[in-house]
Fold DUF1315 domain-containing protein.
Amino acid sequence: MDFEQMIAQLDDAAYQRLKRAVEIGKWPDGRVLSNDQREASLQAVIAYEMKSEVATNERTGFVDMAGSSCHSDAEHGEEPTILKWKNG
């Protein structure tokens, strides 16, 4: 079974267990995830969220920039923002 087939067969309960395992670094039975397991599980969680059309603000890694002084769609539109680094 390839990765895409696995994601297609993943149900919500398994998704929730994978997501929790990535969050706390342990499987439901208490065993610690290896780095490879954590990476693969995180990829599966993100793929499932995309397939299942989980709301953007509920997806893994979402950062809410609304109201942030660092980000304004009206001010910048779709143009990239150039960052200037300051030492000090």
Q: What stands out?
A: The two ends are 53 Å apart (CA to CA). The mean pLDDT is 86.
